[in-house]
Design goal:
By secondary structure, this protein is α+β, with helices and mostly antiparallel strands. It contains 4 helices and 10 strands. Among the domains are: 65-129, wza like fold (2-Layer Sandwich); 134-214, Outer membrane lipoprotein wza domain like (Outer membrane lipoprotein wza fold like). It has a 5-stranded mixed beta sheet, covered by helices on one side. Strands 2-1-5 form a 3-stranded antiparallel beta sheet, with helices on one face. Strands 3-4 form a two-stranded antiparallel ribbon.
Length: 215
């Protein structure tokens, strides 16, 4: 009798456990699976823009873009383009000569003018774009025209940027024309000699306004 009761209890217990597991499985199948939201892939991040490298001995010229910032005086701050007459226009200060000055000299000039309206002005001048420094190449090259001179560049480098010489170019009779103190100066450049590693000093560093003539 006792043995039958134990057997019955064991069977009942097994049934209860099985029912529990079955119910849990059913509830799990019916319940939606919750997952943490996944942020959409925004794709590769754009690289940061490289800061402008200002050439040594740089002076401001027409078409250059400058950012003038006044600390604690945002209304006087502005981004300006140097006009063909060499001036910039700032709020309250009006026209100020900028061409021919270094950024530091321009900063000092603006600060001096601002003292008429602001006590102890703190000014920052940042070069945003250099458009005044240009060199020209014309004649028998593949891409003649005007090129920006934002850094150090030699005659040979400009010829390469312009696509190289045309097939019928007279590479031994190239000229560099430069304005020095209001006077026109001319320098000879022999492309053929340079290819043979001869007379390397003729591959001079270009200056703003230089023109390369390739016959």
């Amino acid at each position: 009798m006792t043995t039958r009761l134990c057997s019955t209890n064991i069977v009942n217990a097994i049934g209860v456990v099985a029912a529990v597991f079955t119910t849990a499985a059913v509830l799990s199948a019916q319940s939606p699976v919750r997952t943490s939201p996944v942020a959409p892939d925004s794709g590769p991040r754009a690289p940061k823009a490289a800061s402008l490298v200002v050439p040594l001995q740089y002076t401001i010229g027409a078409d250059d873009v400058m950012s003038v910032l006044f600390w604690r005086d945002k209304d006087m701050s502005s981004e300006v383009t140097v006009r063909p007459d060499g001036k910039i226009t700032l709020p309250l200060l009006n026209d100020i000569d900028a061409a021919g000055l270094t950024p530091t000299q321009l900063k000092d000039r603006i600060a001096e003018e601002a003292k008429k309206y602001v006590t102890d002005p703190t000014v920052t001048v940042e070069v945003k774009a250099i458009n005044s420094r240009k060199v020209y190449i014309t004649g028998e090259v593949r891409k003649p025209g005007l090129y920006p001179l934002t850094g150090s560049m030699t005659v040979l480098q400009l010829i390469a940027i312009a696509g190289g010489l045309d097939d019928y170019a007279k590479g031994d009779k190239i000229s560099i024309v430069r304005n020095e103190g209001g006077q026109q100066a001319s320098f000879k450049f022999n492309y053929k000699e340079l290819l043979k590693q001869r007379n390397l000093q003729q591959n001079i560093e270009l200056k703003p306004g230089d023109s390369i003539l390739v016959p």
